């Protein structure tokens, strides 16, 4: 499997899976940039980020469009895409999303994640 395909599979899990996925795939420290959620802007621990995934049904019907991939070398990659998804309460949500991953001995880990609602 290519790194690009693997990272998009991991990324999908952040939308559709629960805390265990976050604990498995977020780096020890992760920079988050969510303009609509001030408390989630800044550097957070893996546990703090995982604690935000309180329900596995918080999102559904995810579509990732205009996928982009930047190969920053053997151990660093960035993906970006337009997410169109439905919140658990039925409200639609769309954002431009970017995520940076670093390769650690136990696999790819999310080190940066950003949303720009559209």
Give an account of the 3D structure.
The chain is of the alpha+beta class and 118 residues long. Helices cover 22% and strands 52% of the residues. It has a 6-stranded mixed beta sheet. The protein is globular. It starts with a helix and ends with a strand.
What is the compact description of this entry?
The chain contains three helices and six strands.
Please state the CA-atom Rg, rounded to the nearest Å: 13 Å
Helix share, percent: 10-25%
**SSE ordering:** HHEEHEEEE
Q: Strand fraction band?
A: over 45%
Number of discrete helical segments: 3
Low-confidence stretches: none
Pairing-aware structural class of the strands and helices?
alpha+beta
Q: What is the average of the pLDDT values?
A: 93
Notable traits:
alpha+beta; 6-stranded mixed beta sheet; 3 helices; 118 residues
Topology of helices and strands:
Elements: H1 3-16, H2 19-25, E1 26-33, E2 42-45, H3 46-50, E3 59-71, E4 76-87, E5 92-104, E6 107-117
Parallel strand pairs: 1-6
Antiparallel strand pairs: 1-2, 3-4, 4-5, 5-6
């Amino acid at each position: 499997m290519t790194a690009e395909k693997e990272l998009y599979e991991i990324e999908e899990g952040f939308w559709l899976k629960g805390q265990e996925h976050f604990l498995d795939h977020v780096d020890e420290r992760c920079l988050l940039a969510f303009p609509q959620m001030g408390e989630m802007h800044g550097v957070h621990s893996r546990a703090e980020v995982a604690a935000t995934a309180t329900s596995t049904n918080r999102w559904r019907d995810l579509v990732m469009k205009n996928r982009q991939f930047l190969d920053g070398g053997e151990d660093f990659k960035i993906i970006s895409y337009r997410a169109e998804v439905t919140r658990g309460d039925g409200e639609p949500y769309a954002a431009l999303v970017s995520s940076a991953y670093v390769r650690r001995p136990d696999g790819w880990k999310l080190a940066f994640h950003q949303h720009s609602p559209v």
